[in-house]
Amino acid sequence: MSYQREFEKRLNVAVVGVGSHGYRNVLPTLNFLPVRLKALCDLNIELARITAKQYGADAFYPSMAEMFENEELDAIFLCAPPRLHPELACEALDAGMHVWMEKPPGMFADEVSEMIAHRKDRVVVVGFKKAFMPATQKIIEIFATDEYGPLRSILGVYPMTISSDGKRVLREKEHTNWLQNGCHPLSLFVAVGGKVSNVTVHRNQWGGGACILEYENGAFGNFHLANGTGGGQPSEIYQFFGNGCHAEIRNSTRVLLQRGMPFNYSGSTSYVPEGFDSGAIVWEPQNSLGTLENKGLFIQGFYQEMRYFCDCILEGRPAEQGSLEFALEVMKVYEAGLRSEGETVAV
Hints:
Shape: globular
Radius of gyration: 22 Å
Helix content: 25-40%
Oligomer: single chain
């Protein structure tokens, strides 16, 4: 682990969009990346000016075109409303920039295809944090083994609703919570389970219900749309079932691998048999210390996704995690969920 001031080789970068989210999460993460912040860009030029002064950036601009004309940059971190991402990302790619962008990448899957056409040899990573967070990566590691894999099914619980008239939402380009936050659990489902072939959504009168995912590899996903929880309740749970085991992510901060115990229906007398080869393994952050692994930027995946982006550029390799191809799969599932309205939709 290195800090920004310790890297010998750093990328010259700009942050585009310094509103609430960018200020709370994107800019602070730069402290841990091999970057040199050269400029900020925001339509609110006064906000850009104040923020640039705080972070020691050399310049601030109201438009990317002006910034690209005056600055020598390697990459941008794009944190704007999703409806603007495709246009801004393509503009940056055409200017030769590498692009990291916050999720979702746009409003529609075909916009991601357009970005792929503009990408050429540039690195593009979409910030699907739940695909990058340590808990998800541990689950992928577990079910990639011969001992516990392959993955057979996933159950996810996440506070979410979906519109009863999803086809209208798509037609009228409405920005709903299914886009803004539904892409979080959907990205985890795709990252762990792989490509989805069919989507079926059943909803109740309040907008909750279930989004059923059928995977190309034969696995099955059940995304429970838990619309009854209140704000601030820790109600996010994912369970994964494989070969004689199941694993769990609870609220991003706890990973459990349940191996069970040697069991005979009529003869087992203890649930804690001798030895350490059975039972559960639990990983969780050590919150009693002021260390990095227990900070939200690291638990939730912000650091991992942004560091991965930088490493791909510095090492001259294309992105695989959070790539535009991955984003395209997530957006296809997102659209299929809206089109379903109780019917099975092929992805």
